# Entry
Amino acid sequence: MKSKSLLAAASLLAISASFAHARPEIEVVGNGKVDAEFIASVFPDKKAFGEADTDKAVKDLFATGAFTDVKVEKRGSKVVVTVSETPVVVNVVFNGNKRLKDEQLLVAGALDSGTAFDPARLPEVSARIAAAYAATGRHAAKVTSSVFTRDGGFYDVSFAIDEGDRSETSEIWFEGNRSFSASKLRSVMVTKPTGLLSKLFSRDVLDEGRMEADRRRIEAYYRSKGFADVIVSEPEIDFDPEGKKGMAGFRITEGPRYTVGSVSVDNTVSAPFFRLDEVKKMEGQTYDPAKAARGADLIGSNLDYVGPMDIQTRTSRLPNGTMNIEYVINRGQKVYVERIEIVGNQVTKDYVVRREFDLSEGDLFDPRLVREAERRLNRLGFFDSVRIATAKGSSEDRVVVRVEVVERKTGEFSIGGAYSTADGPMAVISLSQANFGGTGRAFSASVGQGTETGNYDFSFTEPYIFGNRLSATMQVFRRDYDNREGGFRPYDETVDGAKITLKGPISANTDLGVYYSLSTSKKSDIDADVANTLVSGDDHVVSSLGYDWGYADLDDEKNPTNGLKTSFGQQFAGLGGDSRFVKSEASARLYRELSERHEIVGSLAVRAGHVAALGDDLDFSDHFRTAGELVRGFENGGIGPRDATTGYLLGGQYYAGASAEAIYPIPVLSDGLGIKGSIFADLGTVWGVDGDTASSTGAKAMYDSASIRSSVGTGVVWDSPLGLFKANFALPLSKEDGDRTQVFSISGGTRF
# Structure
């Protein structure tokens, strides 16, 4: 150890000697915390240096942030450097803050203990802290700073905070919106006028960053509807003198609306190109830049085998409101990703954003992959806004990808209730987080107890396993059911189960999930007329493997107006347990906007299912016993084969249904609460009792035919942040004698 110390001392002496030999004599004055040798080392290694050298050295010293003033003067052969050191913060104290924690305020103010900082800049820190409060809706917050000086250039600082009352958004206005109503444009925005729900979920906060994201949302909505030249002004935000009430608005210049005329391809490289007919499907449709970009992606994907291609989308506007599209195929210049910058993610980890890209630093740049990453990031549900832009890098063949996000709240704790005509009232406590710790992991836990049923659920999702976009979800649950009249469930039942699912994308719009499920049903207090014959008192175990395939091409996943969503799944039971069957189900729903001006969206839906025994008889509990939404106007289990003697609902091996529905906004209610009305027509049926099961149990099936039941009705739909509410009035048009009708039904939940 001693020899090492001597060696280090000798090295320092050698360094000092080299400084003395290479530099003029430099005298440092005014330093206390910063070593004089460090200050001298910034100056050039030569005896004589000019004004430019001095300026550079002074700028380098200022850039360290350790000095508030640096003066250099020559005194003969000596250079005198006089410095004024920046004071160092020892302690930072906040008083009066309740809504924001000290840690949040330290980050907002960019001031922490142990850092060099000029007290004269404390008003800037106070302004940043006030801005952090404004981002939570407290625009009246006041921040006052105080400085306590210590010896040796150190000081303490404290901030006295008056958080003030939460501001209200009294109005969000629009000017120049001739084609779309104000309520429609507000529905596109994240920011909402102050109300019960918007206040609860902080959607009424007038934050400049969020409002800018809303401006882009409005602009994107207009462009998707053919207004390619739309201009949406910067948001105009005003508050009253006390900062308690605010108004915000946008001025809109819509411009003409375009329909796609001709779609052509200029293949300058003469590379074989296929599937031109798919690109030309846009002809005659409303011009949408996003669809035009997807057309370029389709062309590019067909030419991957040729090498890098530059697909340019050229548009030409005609006076009659027609937009012609021409795709020009050129040999692409090889451009590489220099870096990916991510901004705005205060909670979400960088790697959660980066893993949605199929390219990284150093990779060949592909705009298709960037657009696909933007789509994936929007689907995560972690962000109110995602914007990806590119800029020139350090050279012509380098590009910088900049990802700008505006985060949303992804956690929820709720205590409240739910009600349905099927299961009665229920008290619910739930806790969920969709982006736990900013890692993208999700969990949820809920307990619900009602007069006729009880639900207990826990689930956890790991979103990115095996190094790819494959998610794993583990779920455990319990369901308690009381005896139900009408033969649907003539016993008390407890179902305990667990399910493990692996799910991942197989294309841009298609995903596939595979799962293993295990459940145990325990029945008690079985009605005497069905006990031991139709319903066994033994535990019933179902162990199964299954898969679910889904395709979705919707313009908006939460509130679609156009697109198709389909699914198909199969469940194979028989890996142990008491059931042996294969169950298949399929569904499809098509959305179309029927009236853009009046915001009426129509949908057509079909679904069907089949279950078949594998060797053993099919238990009645494994038959299909449909819920009331198959044909509204009928009870849960209100249609389907029944036992002639007991009235017990046997269920069927088959079901099929179809529905046509139109959803429209309700004036005033839609604008403030998002409540919409609906009119619908349903038809469906359940049939096909397993013959072997009926024979072995002695059941005598009635109403076992594919006779169609139908109904028409009207309803109210509230897809609120607190849960989905549905209330329907339905009039059955066709039914069987044993069916059980229910004209009014309600389901949904509320939390507070």
Confidence is low (pLDDT under 50) at residues 1-22. The CA atoms of residues 238 and 271 lie 57 Å apart.
